[in-house]
Amino acid sequence: ETGVTQTPRHLVMGMTNKKSLKCEQHLGHNAMYWYKQSAKKPLELMFVYSLEERVENNSVPSRFSPECPNSSHLFLHLHTLQPEDSALYLCASSQEGLTEINYGYTFGSGTRLTVV
Amino acid sequence: GESVGLHLPTLSVQEGDNSIINCAYSNSASDYFIWYKQESGKGPQFIIDIRSNMDKRQGQRVTVLLNKTVKHLSLQIAATQPGDSAVYFCAENIRGAQKLVFGQGTRLTINP
Question: Does B89 sit within 8 Å of A104, measured CB to CB?
C-alpha cells in the first residue's frame, strides 16, 4: 500500500445514480488532490484541498462535488454523470511546506469508474 | 503555457538493455521535476526527482537528466527488467503554482 487508500476500486453507475468516491491518506499530509485519468490524455487536475480548504477547482462540471472533512479524508460525490466521465479517478496527497517546492505526490490506486 | 510532453507514446526494449524516456517542458519557471511509474491497475508511483539547480541525479538503476537550456528531461533505466514495464510520466512543479503538471506518459514494454 502506498499510504493513500481509495475505495471502491471499481464502480459502475447509471447516469441517474448518485455515488461517492472515498480517499484516505495515512501519511500526515496536509494537501489532497483529485485527478482524472482518461486514455491517451495527461492527468487532469480536478480539485485541490490544502489544510482542508479548497484552493483550486479546475473548471470541473458541477456534477462532481468534492468534500474534505479533515486532512486525512477526501470524497468526490458524483451525480447525473455522463458516459464521457468514465475514467480512472486518482487521489493524491502531499505535504505543503513553507517553501514553494512540492516534494511530490503520493497517489492512491484509483477508482475505475464506468458510467452506463 | 503549462505543458509537459513526452516525445514518444510507446517504447519497446529488450530485457537487459538500457532505456531512455524523454520529456519536454515549456515553462521556464518550473523548479522541480519528478518521474512517476504507473503499472497496470495502480496509481502513479514516485521514481526519482530533480531540482532545477541540478542537471543529473542518480538512483538505483535510474538516472534523471535535466537540460534547462532546451527544457528537456530524460529518464534512463539501466539493465531493464520485466518489472519495468509500465507507463512513465514526467511532471513539473511550476514555481508559485504549488501544483504538478503531468505529461501524457510513455508506455515502456520490456521484451524477453
Answer: no
